[in-house]
Amino acid sequence: MQKLLILANSGRVRFLVFKQSGDDPLEKAHLLEGPGSPVEMRPAAIHGTVTDHAGRFRQGGAAGQAGGMSYGEEYELEEQLETEALRRVAAKIDEIVSVAGYPSWQLVAPPTLLPGLRETLTPATLKVLAHSDTGDLTKLPIADLEKRFLA
Q1: 89 exposed, middle or buried (CB, 10 Å; 0-12, 13-18, 19+)?
Q2: What is the pTM of this model?
Q3: CATH number for position 123
Q4: If we measure between CA atoms, which residue out of 20, 12, 19 comes closest to residue 37?
């Protein structure tokens, strides 16, 4: 097991620290929630960013009549918002790994996010990445995470 487990999706980063079992034979290894975890970073929604009324121009129809068609330019806003969310998540992961002193760590993120995260993380953070896996486990209880990662 790696010393640090980071679970991420486009709006949430959760990190857990691996705690070794102690001298007591009844004490088992377990995961501890990191300080300040989880970190919520809700991505901006398109409907909160733009409206279909601002900058509307009429086209066609008689002069002075309401109606006609409106048109606008395509700015690929969805892709821009996804890229911005990806950068925020990667920056938070870089910060977590850096503050922890660059220990060996494991990343779990949705399959749509994982390749982009690996490309966006800094080289120093990627250097100590031991394993990555797909899935969205950011809301799973610690007991379930321990069954999955410590079994």
Answers
A1: buried
A2: 0.74
A3: 3.30.420.60
A4: 12
